[in-house]
Amino acid sequence: MDPETRSASGALLFRGKTQAQAREVVENLMSAPNLDLSLITRSAANEVYRQHRKQSLMIQELFEKIGGPVMSLPSDNPYKHHMRYLVDPFAGYSAEEGIHPLLLNLMRTSFTPSSDAVNLEDFTTGRNRMRSPFSLQRLQERTKKFFPQGTGRGKPMNHLGFDQDGKTRTIITWDTETTGLTPDSQVRDIALVKRTITSNADGTYTYGAPQVISRKSFASDLMDIASAVGKDGSTIPLSEAVFLSEMGDDANPIMLAKFRNAFKDGGASAISDFKEVLTEMISADVLEGHTAEAFDIEKMINTIQRLPAYNEDPEIKTLVQQFQSKVRNSPNFIIDTLDSSNILMNAERSELGRVLSNEALGLSDQLRGELIASFSIAEELFGRSKRT
Amino acid sequence: MVGAKGPESLENLFLNTNFLSLLEEGGVPKELVTLMETRGTHTAEVDAMLNSYMSEFIQTGKLKLERMPTAGMPPSLLSEEAAREYLQNETKIQETLNQHGFVRKNRSLTAFEKFMRQRIRRSGAVTPITNVSDVARLSEESFNYLLETEPGRQKISLAVDRDYAARMGLPTSFTSEIDGKVLTSEMEESAVGKLFYNKKANRYQMSVGGATENVEKSIAEAAIQDTLREARQGRSLSVGVPFGAAGQQNIGINPGTERIANVAMSEIEQTELDQMRRARSLGAGTVSAPSTKDEVLRAVGTTREFYGSDSSGYSQILAAEAGTTPGSLKTAEFAQTLAQRGLPYASLDARSRVLATAEASATSEIGARMLSLAGDTRFQKLASAETLSDLSDYGIQFMMAQGKEGRFGFKSVVGGRVITPNENSYFRTPISGTPKRASRVIMTADDLMKLKFRTFDESGSAMSEIAFGSKEFIESSELNRFVDSFVQNNSSEKILNRALSIKNQSRATMEDLADQVISLNIRKI
Q1: Which DSSP state fits B9?
Q2: What is the pLDDT of residues A53-88, one digit of tens each?
Q3: Considering only alpha carbons, which residue of chain A is nearest residue B90?
Q4: Is residue A238 part of a domain?
Q5: In a shared domain, residues A79 and A207
Q6: Crossing angle for the helix pair B350-362 and B364-374, nearest 10 degrees?
Q7: Which positions in chain B touch A42 (Cβ < 8 Å)?
Q8: Which of B29, B364, B461, B467 would you label with B101, given CA atoms 20 to 30 Å apart?
Q9: Which among A156, A197, A289 has CB closest to B51?
Q10: What's the CA gap between B54 and B49, in Å, rounded?
Q11: Looking at this predicted complex, what is its ipTM?
C-alpha cells in the first residue's frame, strides 16, 4: 500500500504496529472480499473505481458491443432505477474453464442511470461492494469444479467445490442479525447450524441432518433507542422484547441475565460467546452463509474488536487471527451462498430467456425482457416496504 | 443477513423457487418447526437453518426458479404495453412456462407452504428504524391509534388469501381491460392479495399480481380492524396448522399476526409517540412560565440533571426505565419537570428533547455571532457562546440562513476565484459567475410531495392551492421547473442534484413555502 495514497484512517491503522503486525493487517486487507476504499484517499479511491469499471466491468466495450443493461429491477427509491445485464454464466465456456471473471462481476453489478443519462459516467455502479481481485480469483477457481456433470437446468451445481473423493466433511451454515447497516452497527444475534456432507464417488451427495449448535444473542444499546411494552405495561428495551418474543417459553432468568449483560463491563460475556463461536467455525471444513463474505464476516470481526474486553483477552485475539488466517489461506473454507444463488438464478433467467425466445411464441423483445425481470422477484415482494 | 430483497435475497429465493416444496418433500425437520413457532426469517437460527437446506438444493441441482401461476392477470412490473401483449398471449405463454417448469403446475398450496409463505412475507429485520414487526408489543395507546383512527388504519397493509378475502367481502375477482375488452379473472387459491391504502388514489385498494381493484372503505377497515384485534392477542391466540404426511406435525400461529404485511410506523416512531402521549397525559403539554430568576436558574441544566451523566448515548434514556411501569418512567418525569420549570417542548419525546438541547448547545457560537451582528442592544448580554450554551435547555438553535453564509465570513471558491455568495431566498443561493446554480435546501421525496403552492390575497387569506405533483402542478410551466446539476462533478461518481426552481411567485407564496419546508424539516429533528 503506497503511503502516498494512504489516507488518515489508513495511517492510524498502522500507528503503533510492528512490521509483522502491519503486514498481517495489510494481508487481511488485500484478502478482504471487498475493496475498502475508506482506507485510501479520495483521489486514489476514484482511480480504483475508474479502473474497476474499465478493467473489471469493461464498461466501454460492453456498451459498444452489447448495449446497455436491459433488465430493470424494482426499487423502493423513486429516484433510482437499478438495471442489470442478463448474464448467462455458462455461455461460451466449457464447464472445466469455470465462469469468466467478467461474468462473475457483471452478475452482481447493478447499473443506476441518472434520469438524463447520455454517457457511460451517467451509469453509476456501486463503490462499496467492489469485489477484490483476491476474492474474484478464488471464486473463479472454484467455479471450475461447479459442473462435474456438465451444465444445464437441473444438473448438480457443486458450489461447495468438493472433489468426488468419498470424504465426509463438516459444514457450518451461519447467519448474523445486526443492529442495522451503518458502519458502527453491531452483531446482536448469531447462530451456527452444523451438518455433514459426504461427497460420493458417483457424483451424488449424502447430507446429514442440520442441527443448531450455537445461538448467541446480545442486548445492544444501538437497538434500545426504541422500546416495546410488556403484558404488564412495563417498558422493555427493543432488543430484549425481540429476544423474549423469539425465545417464547424457552426464556429463563439465567438466559435473560446473560443476554442483558453481554456488552456490559467491556463486553467480557460477549467475548466469551464469540470465543465459542470462533472455535466452532475454525473447526469446520466449510463455513457458509448468505452474504457471509460480503458482509457478515466483517461485521462479526468489527463487533469483536470494538469491545474493550477484546484488548484484554489474548485468547480471543489468537482465535480471531486463526480465523482470519483460515479464511485467507483455505480457498474452499468460506462459501458465500449469495454468489452461489446469484450464479444459479442468472442461469435460470437465461434459460427462461431462451424459452421465451421461441419463435412460435412470437413475443416482442420488450415483453420478453420485462417478463424476465418480473420473474426475478416473487410477486409477494413487489411494492413491499419495511420502512415508513 | 442483509435485509435486501433483491433477486438473490434469501426471502426471494424462498418464495420465488421450488424451495418450500423441496423442503416439505424431504420431511420438514422438527427443529425447524419448533423454531418457527416463535420466529420468522431474519432471525439468525431460522435463516441459518433454511440456508443450510438452500445450499443443499443448489449443490444437488434441485433448486429451480418457479412461480405460482397468475391466471388471467399480468405479472407485476410489466408496462402497459407489455401487459397488453401478455394478456393477448397468456394461454400460450403459460403453457410454455408450465412445460419448462418455470410456473408451478399444481395450483394449490399445502398447509406448510401457506404458513411458510405467510411467515417469510411478513418477516423483516428488526432494528429501531424498521417498521413495527409485532403489534402485540405496542402500548395500548399506540395500538388504539392504529385500530381506532383513520390515519392509523391507513398505515396497515394486509396480505390476504382468497378465503379471508371472501369471508371479509374483499375482492376475489379482478378485471383487466385490453383494447376495450374487459377480462375478469378469479383469485387463485394460492394467490396472495395485498390490501393497502393508496395515498395517491386516496382510497383502499387490493392488488394481486399486476391487477388492482378498489375496495370500499368500510370493508377494508373492517378487515384491518379484525386482523389487528386478532394479532393483538399475540401467542395467547394459537391456531394449529397441521402439515406433513397425515398431518402429524402441527405448528401454532396467530392468523392475524401472519396476515399483517406492514405497519407503516417504525419501532422508534412508536416509542416516541408513546412518550409524547404519556407526557401530555401527565400535563407536560402545559408549560408554566418561570416568574423569578431563581426559577430560571433552576431550569437551566435540567437535561444534564436527568441525562448528563450518561456516557453511552441516548439508549440509556430508555434502558434506565426498562421494566418500570408508565407511572414511574424517567422519561415521563423528565417531561413533567421540563414543563414545571417553564422549559419549552416539554411534551416532545425524550430523545428528540435531549437532541434539541444538544443542538442548541452545539450551535451556540453561530448564535453568538448572529446576536452580535443584530445590532439590537437587548440581545448584547446573550451574545456569547458560553451564555447561549448555558441556556441550551430552552432549545434555541441557531442556523446560518441559506445564502447568508457571507455574514459568517464564508466565501465560495469557484475555479480558483473567491466569490462572496449573493443573499437570496430560503430556496436558492445563486453563485454569480457560474452557468449552473446550486440548490441548498435538501428535502426528501416524501416531504416534497407534501408541499402546497398557495396564492394569497392582500389580507393574507389563501385564494388557491396546488399540490406538488398534481395535474395542475405538472401543467404549470412556472411551478413544474427543475434544474439539474451534479455533486462531485469532477469525480467519476457524479450524483444528480435536482432542484425545484419555481418562478414568478409572490413573496407571500414563497414565504408560505418556506414555512412548509422549515416545518417539514423540524418534524424530523
Answers
A1: S
A2: 999 999 999 999 988 888 877 665 656 678 889 899
A3: A361
A4: no
A5: no
A6: 60
A7: 491
A8: B29
A9: A289
A10: 9
A11: 0.92
